[in-house]
């Protein structure tokens, strides 16, 4: 089996992105699972072509995209992606869409097909702060999450896919008074556990109950 894991470039004036730094620390294998990684631009227009090219190149069984959410206090596997782009700040290419669909022909939302409840339990048992999130926002992270699941639905792809938000790194929080943070090693460990749980449950690949498709 193979997993494709993505992290974003820094954005919004930051010099690092915790998702990318954690992805860079992943091992090449987790048990029998091969792990490959991809850096994604923090930009609406450029991110999905990079993601789709990596999927077509690697033909993964699992796709996990990760991104920064500086206000989060814990690892946040996302339940649902919504069909909207509504940017509070410009992306790295200067784009700032407001109330624009990710996919004109797409449904209102898609649910993750990763076993996020089981992964949350496993992470908590490992001593990691984590909780399921019901909002991936409306910036590039949600854009990529929705685009990933739309690709899977429209091309009948066999991979299990989803998204996890991660907090700031301590060096970022130092510049944001009272902001929460998490060590990069802890973030990477959470990603590893999520991937391991998804690999263990690979035979249960189904669209989440209640998913819009």
Automatic annotation (TrEMBL):
Where it sits in the cell: the answer is: Cytoplasm
Alphabetized, the UniProt keywords read: Cytoplasm, Hydrolase, Protease, Thiol protease
| A Gene Ontology term for the protein's cellular component | cytosol
Q: What is its EC number?
A: 3.4.19.3
Q: Which reaction does it catalyse?
A: Release of an N-terminal pyroglutamyl group from a polypeptide, the second amino acid generally not being Pro
Q: Which InterPro entries match?
A: Peptidase_C15 (IPR000816), Peptidase_C15-like (IPR016125), Peptidase_C15-like_sf (IPR036440), PGP-I_bact-type (IPR029762), PGPEP1_Cys_AS (IPR033694), PGPEP1_Glu_AS (IPR033693)
Record's keyword annotation contains Protease: yes
Please indicate if the UniProt record lists Cytoplasm as a keyword.
Answer: yes
According to its UniProt entry, the function of this protein is described as: Removes 5-oxoproline from various penultimate amino acid residues except L-proline.
Family to which the UniProt record says this protein belongs: Belongs to the peptidase C15 family.
Official protein name in the record: Pyrrolidone-carboxylate peptidase
Which organism is the protein's source?
Answer: Limobrevibacterium gyesilva
